[in-house]
Design goal:
The protein is an alpha/beta fold. The protein has helices spanning about 15-30, 35-40, 45-55, 90-95, 125-135, 175-185, 200-205, 225-235, 275-280; strands at about 75-85, 100-105, 115-120, 140-145, 165-170, 190-195, 210-215, 245, 270. The protein has three domains: about 5-55, Orthogonal Bundle (Arc Repressor Mutant, subunit A), CATH 1.10.10; about 70-150, Alpha-Beta Plaits (2-Layer Sandwich); about 165-280, 3-Layer(aba) Sandwich (Rossmann fold), CATH 3.40.50. The strands form two sheets. It has a five-stranded parallel beta sheet, sandwiched between helices. Strands 2-3-1-4 form a four-stranded antiparallel beta sheet. It starts with 16 loop residues before the first helix and ends with a helix.
């Protein structure tokens, strides 16, 4: 049996949801093996290995040891803000970055051009650093420092936020259908938006493309929904959004006006009335 048949997932060109799930697991336990990650996500071990290799190679993640500063003899931490003459900003940054006491260094906007974090074995060492090392840096106009008393949250404890729920746009002028659909989909974790016409739907999608569209046919025009699906397929931003068309038109006097399957640009079709659970399954 091939690896793909055992759950291997194709490699994306950029970071996708599966990559984020792998990273989230490693944030919880950096010693987690590829096999354990694969078991937790229900995918092949080779998928985890290849994706981690790619994430490491392109710099999306790094494997590093983060020491506990007090336990390695650096209990004093300070946050520094430096106002620097424009002509000297990069040179001052270069010199600061070369100092072993500096943990991190950032270019910033606002009154101060540089922000840094540094650590020291003692307050005496901190004082010497400020009075002897920083005071000699040419180009520094102003320096403020704040000693860290306690860290409530650090980068090493930050976790990726949970992904936003998939968005479903329900396009229908029947408020009862929209409400029933909204309740059913929200119960399954979807974010549900709605529009009462094709024009309103297209405007909403241009502003914020949804993940799925549930689309009625007969709204402000008999084939309003058909025109929406055609417009979506011709729009580069909207062309790949799945469309589930839900309508009673096959049972109406306008059935002959409805396009055949080959001319209908949708991914699925259900005839109203539709049980909510069937709608959820299709989505």
């Amino acid at each position: 049996m091939s690896e793909k048949s055992q759950g291997e997932v194709p490699m994306p060109d950029s970071v996708d949801e599966l990559d984020l799930q792998i990273i989230a697991l490693l944030q919880e336990d950096g010693r987690m093996s590829n096999v354990e990650i694969a078991r937790a996500l229900g995918i092949a071990e080779s998928t985890v290995r290849k994706r981690l290799e790619r994430l490491l190679q392109n710099g999306t993640v790094r494997i590093v040891a983060i020491p506990d500063l007090p336990k390695v003899g650096r209990p004093v931490r300070v946050l520094l803000s430096l106002q620097v003459s424009p002509a000297w900003v990069r040179e001052v940054a270069r010199r600061l970055a070369a100092l072993p006491e500096v943990i991190s260094l950032h270019f910033t906007t606002g009154e101060y051009q540089l922000a840094a974090e540094a650590c020291f074995p003692s307050e005496r060492a901190l004082h010497a650093f400020l009075s002897e090392r920083l005071s000699s840096l040419q180009g520094v106009v102003r320096l403020t420092s704040a000693q860290v008393l306690q860290t409530v949250k650090g980068r090493e404890t930050w976790r990726l936020p949970p992904p936003a729920p998939p968005t479903v746009l329900v396009v229908d002028d029947d408020p009862d259908f929209v409400e029933v659909t909204r309740i059913a989909l929200k119960a399954e974790g979807f974010d549900v938006q709605s529009a009462v016409s094709g024009q309103e739907a297209l405007q909403a999608m241009q502003a914020s493309p949804p993940d799925v569209v549930i689309l009625d046919v007969m709204m402000r025009g008999i084939l309003d929904g058909v025109r929406v699906s055609d417009a979506m397929r011709q729009d580069e931003r909207l062309a790949r959004i799945p469309i589930l068309m839900v309508s009673s038109i096959p049972e109406s006097p306008y059935a002959e006006m409805f396009p055949t399957d080959g001319a209908l640009h949708v991914d699925g079709f259900l005839t109203k009335p539709v049980p909510p659970e069937r709608l959820v399954d299709e989505v």
